[in-house]
Amino acid sequence: MFDTRFAINSFPKILSVAPETIILSIIATIIGLILAIFIVIVRERKIRVLEPIAAVYVSFIRGTPIIVQLYVVYYGLPQLLVALRNMGLNTTTNGLPVMLIAILAYSFNASANISESIRSAYHSVNYQQYEAAVTVGMKPTRAMTRIVIPQLITNLIPNFSNLFLDLIKDTAIVYNIGIVEIMAKANILSSLGFKYVETYLDALIIYIIICWIFAKLFQLLEVFSRKRVSHTQEFI
Amino acid sequence: MLLELRDIEKTFKDNQVLKGIDLTVEQGEVVAIIGPSGSGKTTLLRNINFLETANSGSMTFRDQNIDMARPSKEQILWTRRHMAMVFQNYNLFKNKTALENISEGLVFGQNMAKKEADSLAEIALDQVGLLDKKDFYPSQLSGGQQQRIGIARATVLNPDIILFDEPTSALDPELVGTVLRDMKQLAEQGQTMIVVTHQMSFARDVADRVMFFADGEILEQGDADEIFDHPKNDRTKQFLSAIAEDY
């Protein structure tokens, strides 16, 4: 039988770790965005040596499951640090916080996906917008920052929103490395009470609420920015 | 002489689009370039302000010599800041209002103070009769309105030359007249212009000199009467008779 009382009692307990999920998602997205901007610049400007490396990096990350990436960082990073210490570098090798590892793994993951979205948003800005900007005497960088990038951002928002929501949902596997976030808390409560549907239903509701809030925020942002790059029908 | 182009050649892959173009433009002159599509007219204009880089050729503009195949960044910027361009598809900045579209070049190309730029932009907008649309975004304006703002965006810069790349080709027939009227007014004010156009009536009435362009070459040039009434080149005759019903 569905234990309503258990479900209700578990809800605030699971909700209390929701910040872990949200913080991990937000920080990883921010770092990922910064990395993505570098990747895009390297790839779009075809910077020698770096360009193929960036391309391989992106296809590597897009071509592997996030849980594998998480494990690679989780098990690989300490070994890397040991190796670095053996080479004489002063690194700590124990007590690396799991949250840091998760942030790293998810940042890498986000950077590849976001970079592809930025590239597609960039290419959907008509190149003639840039040309018009330089013909009125703007320097190329000005033409980018005044005309191209604002339009790029508008194009990017829907995709970016999608990626961010995906990332929130993807963080549900970090309980595998011992971070207690929504999914981990649900697992723990389930195994304590031997009741599963109740806690996972709680988790489901919490995920929906979080995603709904962020989806709405991005939607507002999009409406605000579309107003400036209005795509309404010509009315003539 | 304001602008002189010498032996401009441009090749896209194996396709030679410009086969050694020579062109001089005097101060205050209106030069119309006519000819079939794909003949390289637009490419020529784009080479003049370095939206394309020529394979070879040189240019003298305001007594500055520039190697068209190897222009420096400074030369490109300098040239563009003394010219303006009006595009076939208007290319108004989608993220800017009508007024901002016009003031943008003043503020960010010529480093003018925002206030001053705005008041100049308002005057320019008023001249094309669209001051009431100053806070509209391009997507809220008709093609004709957008193109007239495109013209205002060019003229406000007070350029030595305005390059028009088929400015009326994308417009409803009904709206062509308003844009041509603005251009004619500009010509009468002594604005130097190079106009790539399919509007033969405009070329005939407004242009000081008409050039017939085909297959990457200037086949014939002269004043409007010579070209339209007494064309010498067979290709010119053929082109003019093919489009005769249009004008």
UniProtKB/TrEMBL annotation, chain A:
Q: Name a single GO biological process.
A: amino acid transport
- The ABC transmembrane type-1 domain is annotated at 18-218
Q: Where in the cell is it found?
A: Cell membrane
Q: Which Pfam families match?
A: BPD_transp_1 (PF00528)
Membrane-crossing ranges are 22-42, 54-75, 95-114, 173-194, 200-218
Keywords for the protein's UniProt record, in alphabetical order:
Amino-acid transport, Cell membrane, Membrane, Transmembrane, Transmembrane helix, Transport
Gene Ontology terms: cellular component: ATP-binding cassette (ABC) transporter complex
MF terms from GO for this chain are: transmembrane transporter activity
What Gene3D superfamilies does this protein's entry cite? MetI-like
What is the membrane topology noted in the UniProt record heading this document?
Multi-pass membrane protein
The reply on keyword Transport is yes
Q: Which domain of life is it from?
A: Bacteria
- PROSITE patterns in UniProt: ABC_TM1
Which InterPro entries does the entry mention?
Answer: AA_ABC_transptr_permease_3TM, ArtM/GltK/GlnP/TcyL/YhdX-like, MetI-like, MetI-like_sf
- Chief subcellular site? membrane
Q: Which family does it belong to?
A: Belongs to the binding-protein-dependent transport system permease family.
Q: What is this protein called?
A: ABC transporter permease component
Which species does this protein come from? Answer: Secundilactobacillus kimchicus JCM 15530
Automatic annotation (TrEMBL), chain B:
Its annotated compartments are: Cell membrane
Q: Where is the ABC transporter domain?
A: 3-240
In terms of Gene3D superfamilies, this protein maps to: P-loop containing nucleotide triphosphate hydrolases (3.40.50.300)
Any single Gene Ontology cellular-component annotation: plasma membrane
Which keywords appear in this protein's UniProt record, sorted alphabetically?
A: ATP-binding, Cell membrane, Membrane, Nucleotide-binding, Transport
Q: Which CDD domains does this UniProt record tie to the protein?
A: ABC_HisP_GlnQ
Which membrane topology describes this protein? Answer: Peripheral membrane protein
Q: Which domain of life is it from?
A: Bacteria
Pfam families, per this entry?
Answer: ABC_tran (PF00005)
The yes or no answer to whether the keyword ATP-binding is present is yes
In alphabetical order, the GO MF annotations are: ABC-type amino acid transporter activity; ATP binding; ATP hydrolysis activity
The record's listing under InterPro entries reads: AAA+_ATPase, ABC_ATPase_HisP-typ, ABC_transporter-like_ATP-bd, ABC_transporter-like_CS, MetN_ABC_transporter-like, P-loop_NTPase
Q: What is its main location?
A: membrane
Keyword presence, Cell membrane: yes
Report the protein name in the record. Answer: ABC superfamily ATP binding cassette transporter, ABC protein
